[in-house]
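Bench notes, afternoon.
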Amino acid sequence: MYDLSLDTNLKGPTFCALEAAKLIRASGGGKIVNFADWAGFRPYKNYLPYLLAKGGIITLTHALALELAPEIAVNAVAPGPVLAPPGSTEEFKQMMIRQVPLGRLGSPEDITATVAFLLEGSDYITGQIICVDGGRSIANNA
């Protein structure tokens, strides 16, 4: 389980970013956006391999932002509760919603809008992890 999670959620994105950086530099510069998870800041039980990998993505983003600057800006989006797991009961979904200060689950569009902003918006952001979680990462009911 550890190897699969680390290979999928950390090693893959690392090698992808490093290869992309070569192409981006050759074309004169650009941006990389990684995917972390809000739980990289506030871990929860029973997901240790996944959380280690997503914590690694946070560190990878910070490190690459330094390594690749000034030609390449590197940031990450850390989604929060967006979709309930397949087979979730309505009771489980409502419990998830109660933990989000904005009172709803996010949508895929919430995530893509943030990615688009990082790619097309400001050219003066690098090394940042943007939680798109409806406030879940700051809620006291973790």
